[in-house]
Amino acid sequence: VGESSSTGMLTIYLTDAPTIATFDSVNITFSQVSAHLDSEWVTVQGDTLTANLLDLYNGNTIVFGSAEVPAGKYTQVRIKIDDAYVVMNGQRHD
Known about the structure:
Blueprint: E1 7-14, E2 25-37, E3 40-45, E4 49-52, E5 62-70, E6 74-88, E7 91-93
Antiparallel strand pairs: 1-5, 2-3, 2-4, 2-6, 6-7
C-alpha cells in the first residue's frame, strides 16, 4: 500500500476562441484566481495579470495560475476581474 500525497500542483491555463476581427485588442486584468475545495477557497494566483485575449486563440495559452494546493476534489474556479476593455479602430471602449 503506497502513501498518497497531501498536496499537488494545480495549474490553470487561459485560452480563447476565435473572436470578431473588428477588435484591435480585448484586454482583461485579473487580480485573483481561486479554486474551491470542500468548504474553502484556495488561492491559485494572487498577482495581477493583464491579458489580450486576441493573443490567446488557435491553441495559444498562458499560465493563468499555478500553485501547490491541498489534495482533493476541486469543484469550482473563481476569477476576479479588475478591469476589462476593448480597443476598436484605435479607440478604447470600457
